Amino acid sequence: MHFTKSKKHKVPSVIIVSLIDVLLVVLIFLMVSTTFKQEQPVLKLALPDSKVAKPGSADQSTPFVVSVSTNFPYFYIGEKPVNYDQLQRELDAAVQKNPQLVLKIRADKKAPTGEFLRAFDAGKLAKIQTIDVIMEKAR
């Protein structure tokens, strides 16, 4: 015998509006809390200190920056590793485009001095008039 009445069960329904509200709140939270990608150098160089280092001037055209690291391949143009011959060719091509090119050399404190001088010589062989060294200002 059945003494209880059978109840008709309703099919559960999903309320879409509240789900959209929750989704929007989560989306706004993620957008606010996310850090945006900042340009980070490929090479982490510990630049040498200098008491007379000056901030770069903004009136010059974009300089040609060569980074010298502590291990092979020693030379980097932007993010691209290059050997000495490729560096020489890149400098020659850049001087052909812009005879007033400024070469800036970023070298790690522990980079071999010989490799730094090779980068300097490559600039002189390419007939670059202005060669600067990027350093950190002593604190």
* Main beta sheet strand tally, sense and closure: 5 strands, mixed
Percent strand equals 15-25%
| Overall CATH class of the domain at 49-137 | Alpha Beta
How would you classify the helix and strand content by structural class? Answer: alpha/beta
Q: What is the mean predicted local confidence, pLDDT?
A: 85
Helix count equals 3
> What is the percent of helical residues?
25-40%
State the separation between the terminal residues, measured CA to CA: 92 Å
Q: Look up the CATH topology of the domain at 49-137.
A: Nucleotidyltransferase, domain 5
The best one-word shape is rod-shaped
Query: Largest sheet, order of strands side by side?
Result: 4-3-2-5-6
Given as residue ranges, the uncertain stretches (5+ residues, pLDDT < 50) are none
Secondary-structure element series: HEEEEHEHEE
Task: Give me the Rg, rounded.
Answer: 30 Å
CATH architecture of the domain at 49-137: 2-Layer Sandwich
Please provide the count of β strands.
7
